[in-house]
Amino acid sequence: MVQWSDQERAFIMEIFSKLDYELVGSTSLARCLIVYPWTQRYFGGFGNLYNAAAIMANPMVGAHGTVVLHGLDRAMKNMDDIKNTYTELSVLHSEKLHVDPDNFRLLGDCLTIVIAGQMGNSFSPEMQAAWQKFLSVVVSALCRQYH
Fold first, then answer.
1. Does residue 1 fall inside a structural domain?
2. Is the pLDDT of residue 66 over 90?
């Protein structure tokens, strides 16, 4: 079980309170698909993903990015039991979707970049450290079924 300090919890809550889920989710997933084009293979049913402009304009990418952020919201609301909160998602991504688990970290990196851009100077190094810890726990929980 991960131990969270009161300050880490406060930072995570503050980040989520400032997120525009639709904008940040859409932009983060689109960035991931553009920067790491091999991740597109999991989104074959999303239509035109042939270039950056098409990806950025794709409503299915935007909608799924929002779903991802709402999934992260579940982790934030269950910080003391993220592993069990994500059991079903881990099974889904490993056994049905066969997602390469490294892609969770890549998306997390893109999400961090987008959040840093949105929050600017208020995304302090201490806040980022708490955020990176949070993402590490989430990624570990999602990868649980792979081990």
1. no
2. yes
